[in-house]
Amino acid sequence: MNPVKAENIPYHVGIIIDGNRRWAKEKGLPTLEGHRRGLDKLRKVGRWCKDRGVKILTIFAFSTENWKRTKKEVDYLMRLLGQALSKREVKQLNRDGIRLQVIGQKERLGKTLQKIIRNAEEGTKNNKEGILNLAISYGGRAEILQAINKIIKKKVPFSKITEEMVNENLWTAGLPFPDLIIRTSGEQRTSGFLLWQSAYSELYFLKKCWPDFSEKDLDEAFVEYSKRQRRFGK
Predict the structure, then answer these.
(1) Is the pTM of this model over 0.90?
(2) Which helix (H) or strand (E) holds 229?
(3) How high does pLDDT run on average in the chain?
(4) DSSP label at residue 209
(5) Which entry of 66, 94, 119, 167 is annotated as an active-site residue?
(6) Would you tell me which of 12, 32, 162, 210 could form a disulfide with 56, CB atoms 3.0–4.6 Å apart?
(7) Distance between CA 6 and CA 221 in Å, rounded?
(8) Catalytic: 66?
(9) Is 7 a residue whose pLDDT tops 80?
(10) What span, in angstroms and rounded, lies between the C-alpha atoms of 143 and 197?
(11) So what's the pLDDT on residue 170?
(12) What ranges do the domains of the chain cover?
Protein backbone atom coordinates (compact mmCIF):
# COMPACT_ATOMS: atom_id res chain seq x y z
CA MET A 1 0.00 0.00 0.00
CA ASN A 2 1.30 3.42 -0.95
CA PRO A 3 1.87 5.91 1.89
CA VAL A 4 -0.91 8.39 2.57
CA LYS A 5 -1.13 11.57 0.52
CA ALA A 6 -2.12 13.75 3.46
CA GLU A 7 -1.03 17.36 3.30
CA ASN A 8 0.43 17.32 6.79
CA ILE A 9 1.95 14.31 8.52
CA PRO A 10 2.11 14.61 12.33
CA TYR A 11 5.66 14.76 13.68
CA HIS A 12 4.77 13.05 16.98
CA VAL A 13 2.01 10.46 17.17
CA GLY A 14 0.73 8.89 20.36
CA ILE A 15 -1.36 5.73 20.30
CA ILE A 16 -3.48 4.27 23.09
CA ILE A 17 -3.58 0.62 22.10
CA ASP A 18 -6.89 -0.59 23.46
CA GLY A 19 -9.16 -3.56 22.87
CA ASN A 20 -6.85 -6.58 22.86
CA ARG A 21 -8.96 -8.46 25.38
CA ARG A 22 -12.24 -7.48 23.74
CA TRP A 23 -10.92 -8.58 20.36
CA ALA A 24 -9.92 -11.98 21.73
CA LYS A 25 -13.33 -12.46 23.36
CA GLU A 26 -15.14 -11.61 20.13
CA LYS A 27 -12.97 -14.15 18.27
CA GLY A 28 -13.47 -16.84 20.89
CA LEU A 29 -9.77 -16.78 21.74
CA PRO A 30 -7.94 -16.63 25.09
CA THR A 31 -7.33 -13.13 26.45
CA LEU A 32 -3.58 -13.63 26.28
CA GLU A 33 -3.79 -14.32 22.54
CA GLY A 34 -5.29 -10.87 22.10
CA HIS A 35 -2.23 -9.34 23.72
CA ARG A 36 0.10 -11.38 21.51
CA ARG A 37 -1.72 -10.21 18.38
CA GLY A 38 -1.51 -6.68 19.77
CA LEU A 39 2.28 -6.90 19.91
CA ASP A 40 2.37 -8.14 16.32
CA LYS A 41 0.29 -5.14 15.27
CA LEU A 42 2.60 -2.75 17.13
CA ARG A 43 5.54 -3.90 15.02
CA LYS A 44 3.59 -3.22 11.83
CA VAL A 45 2.30 0.17 12.92
CA GLY A 46 5.82 1.27 13.82
CA ARG A 47 6.88 0.48 10.25
CA TRP A 48 3.87 2.23 8.72
CA CYS A 49 4.52 5.38 10.75
CA LYS A 50 8.18 5.46 9.76
CA ASP A 51 7.31 5.01 6.08
CA ARG A 52 4.99 8.02 6.30
CA GLY A 53 7.51 10.32 7.92
CA VAL A 54 6.45 10.22 11.57
CA LYS A 55 9.51 11.02 13.68
CA ILE A 56 8.25 10.19 17.18
CA LEU A 57 5.83 7.39 18.06
CA THR A 58 4.67 7.02 21.66
CA ILE A 59 2.76 3.86 22.55
CA PHE A 60 0.66 3.49 25.71
CA ALA A 61 1.60 -0.13 26.37
CA PHE A 62 0.86 -0.64 30.09
CA SER A 63 -0.72 1.83 32.50
CA THR A 64 -0.30 2.24 36.24
CA GLU A 65 -3.89 0.97 36.55
CA ASN A 66 -3.07 -2.20 34.59
CA TRP A 67 -1.25 -3.54 37.65
CA LYS A 68 -4.74 -4.27 39.05
CA ARG A 69 -5.26 -7.06 36.53
CA THR A 70 -4.74 -10.72 37.41
CA LYS A 71 -1.20 -11.86 38.13
CA LYS A 72 -1.41 -14.29 35.21
CA GLU A 73 -2.26 -11.53 32.76
CA VAL A 74 0.28 -9.07 34.16
CA ASP A 75 3.05 -11.69 34.07
CA TYR A 76 2.22 -12.49 30.45
CA LEU A 77 2.22 -8.81 29.49
CA MET A 78 5.63 -8.37 31.12
CA ARG A 79 6.98 -11.31 29.11
CA LEU A 80 5.57 -9.80 25.93
CA LEU A 81 7.19 -6.47 26.71
CA GLY A 82 10.48 -8.28 27.24
CA GLN A 83 10.09 -9.86 23.80
CA ALA A 84 9.33 -6.45 22.30
CA LEU A 85 12.72 -5.27 23.62
CA SER A 86 14.72 -8.37 22.76
CA LYS A 87 18.11 -8.30 21.04
CA ARG A 88 16.45 -9.20 17.73
CA GLU A 89 14.07 -6.26 18.03
CA VAL A 90 16.94 -3.95 18.96
CA LYS A 91 18.81 -5.02 15.82
CA GLN A 92 15.78 -4.09 13.73
CA LEU A 93 15.52 -0.72 15.47
CA ASN A 94 19.17 -0.10 14.68
CA ARG A 95 18.64 -1.01 11.03
CA ASP A 96 15.78 1.49 10.94
CA GLY A 97 17.73 4.14 12.85
CA ILE A 98 15.14 4.30 15.65
CA ARG A 99 16.02 5.21 19.23
CA LEU A 100 14.03 3.44 21.91
CA GLN A 101 12.95 5.07 25.16
CA VAL A 102 10.80 3.62 27.93
CA ILE A 103 8.81 6.13 29.95
CA GLY A 104 7.02 5.33 33.17
CA GLN A 105 7.70 3.84 36.59
CA LYS A 106 10.59 1.60 35.62
CA GLU A 107 11.32 0.86 39.26
CA ARG A 108 8.05 -1.10 39.52
CA LEU A 109 9.15 -3.53 36.82
CA GLY A 110 10.96 -6.79 37.46
CA LYS A 111 14.76 -6.70 37.61
CA THR A 112 15.10 -8.78 34.44
CA LEU A 113 12.82 -6.48 32.45
CA GLN A 114 14.63 -3.42 33.82
CA LYS A 115 17.91 -4.86 32.54
CA ILE A 116 16.39 -5.61 29.14
CA ILE A 117 15.15 -2.01 28.97
CA ARG A 118 18.55 -0.57 29.89
CA ASN A 119 20.24 -2.69 27.22
CA ALA A 120 17.70 -1.71 24.57
CA GLU A 121 17.94 2.00 25.38
CA GLU A 122 21.73 1.89 25.47
CA GLY A 123 21.92 -0.11 22.26
CA THR A 124 19.81 2.37 20.29
CA LYS A 125 20.80 5.69 21.91
CA ASN A 126 22.80 6.95 18.93
CA ASN A 127 20.08 6.40 16.32
CA LYS A 128 18.85 9.56 14.61
CA GLU A 129 16.01 8.60 12.26
CA GLY A 130 13.24 8.59 14.85
CA ILE A 131 12.17 7.78 18.39
CA LEU A 132 9.93 5.03 19.73
CA ASN A 133 8.62 5.70 23.23
CA LEU A 134 7.04 2.80 25.08
CA ALA A 135 4.95 3.95 28.03
CA ILE A 136 5.18 1.12 30.57
CA SER A 137 3.70 1.41 34.07
CA TYR A 138 2.79 4.89 32.90
CA GLY A 139 0.20 7.32 34.20
CA GLY A 140 -0.09 11.02 33.42
CA ARG A 141 -0.76 11.97 37.03
CA ALA A 142 2.17 9.84 38.21
CA GLU A 143 4.39 11.58 35.66
CA ILE A 144 3.39 15.06 36.80
CA LEU A 145 3.78 14.08 40.44
CA GLN A 146 7.31 12.79 39.92
CA ALA A 147 8.18 15.97 38.01
CA ILE A 148 6.97 18.06 40.97
CA ASN A 149 8.98 15.91 43.37
CA LYS A 150 12.13 16.37 41.27
CA ILE A 151 11.66 20.14 41.28
CA ILE A 152 11.10 20.18 45.05
CA LYS A 153 14.30 18.18 45.58
CA LYS A 154 16.18 20.83 43.61
CA LYS A 155 14.86 23.41 46.11
CA VAL A 156 13.56 25.68 43.38
CA PRO A 157 11.62 28.64 44.87
CA PHE A 158 7.91 28.52 44.09
CA SER A 159 8.08 31.86 42.28
CA LYS A 160 10.71 30.45 39.92
CA ILE A 161 8.76 27.37 38.83
CA THR A 162 7.64 27.64 35.21
CA GLU A 163 5.85 25.45 32.68
CA GLU A 164 9.16 24.94 30.92
CA MET A 165 10.70 23.69 34.16
CA VAL A 166 7.90 21.14 34.50
CA ASN A 167 8.46 20.09 30.88
CA GLU A 168 12.13 19.50 31.60
CA ASN A 169 11.31 17.16 34.49
CA LEU A 170 8.73 14.98 32.74
CA TRP A 171 9.62 11.52 31.48
CA THR A 172 9.34 12.97 27.95
CA ALA A 173 11.83 15.79 28.67
CA GLY A 174 13.39 17.15 25.50
CA LEU A 175 10.66 15.90 23.18
CA PRO A 176 8.00 17.95 21.38
CA PHE A 177 4.44 17.38 22.50
CA PRO A 178 2.26 14.94 20.52
CA ASP A 179 0.49 16.36 17.50
CA LEU A 180 -2.00 13.52 17.18
CA ILE A 181 -3.27 10.93 19.66
CA ILE A 182 -5.12 7.89 18.37
CA ARG A 183 -7.20 5.54 20.51
CA THR A 184 -8.69 2.27 19.34
CA SER A 185 -11.66 0.20 20.60
CA GLY A 186 -14.33 2.90 20.64
CA GLU A 187 -13.48 4.46 23.99
CA GLN A 188 -13.38 8.26 23.73
CA ARG A 189 -11.04 9.28 26.52
CA THR A 190 -7.28 9.49 26.94
CA SER A 191 -7.09 7.77 30.35
CA GLY A 192 -4.24 9.96 31.57
CA PHE A 193 -2.01 9.34 28.55
CA LEU A 194 0.49 12.19 28.20
CA LEU A 195 -1.79 14.25 30.41
CA TRP A 196 0.43 17.35 30.56
CA GLN A 197 1.72 17.06 26.99
CA SER A 198 -1.60 16.56 25.22
CA ALA A 199 -3.26 19.91 26.04
CA TYR A 200 -3.37 20.83 22.34
CA SER A 201 -3.03 17.42 20.73
CA GLU A 202 -5.57 16.45 18.11
CA LEU A 203 -7.57 13.40 19.21
CA TYR A 204 -8.76 10.63 16.91
CA PHE A 205 -10.94 7.75 18.06
CA LEU A 206 -11.99 4.68 16.11
CA LYS A 207 -14.16 1.71 17.02
CA LYS A 208 -11.82 -1.04 15.85
CA CYS A 209 -9.94 -2.98 18.49
CA TRP A 210 -6.17 -2.67 18.33
CA PRO A 211 -5.40 -6.04 16.65
CA ASP A 212 -7.73 -5.05 13.78
CA PHE A 213 -6.10 -1.63 13.27
CA SER A 214 -5.02 -1.42 9.64
CA GLU A 215 -2.72 0.60 7.44
CA LYS A 216 -5.82 2.18 5.92
CA ASP A 217 -7.00 3.20 9.39
CA LEU A 218 -3.68 4.95 10.00
CA ASP A 219 -3.94 6.76 6.68
CA GLU A 220 -7.48 7.88 7.43
CA ALA A 221 -6.34 9.24 10.79
CA PHE A 222 -3.57 11.22 9.07
CA VAL A 223 -5.93 12.57 6.41
CA GLU A 224 -8.34 13.70 9.14
CA TYR A 225 -5.44 15.31 11.03
CA SER A 226 -4.32 17.19 7.92
CA LYS A 227 -7.80 18.73 7.60
CA ARG A 228 -7.80 20.20 11.09
CA GLN A 229 -6.70 23.73 11.94
CA ARG A 230 -4.54 23.84 15.03
CA ARG A 231 -4.96 27.28 16.57
CA PHE A 232 -3.41 26.57 20.00
CA GLY A 233 -5.93 28.93 21.56
CA LYS A 234 -5.23 31.81 19.18
Answers:
(1) yes
(2) none
(3) 95
(4) -
(5) 66
(6) 12
(7) 10
(8) yes
(9) no
(10) 11
(11) 98
(12) 12-227
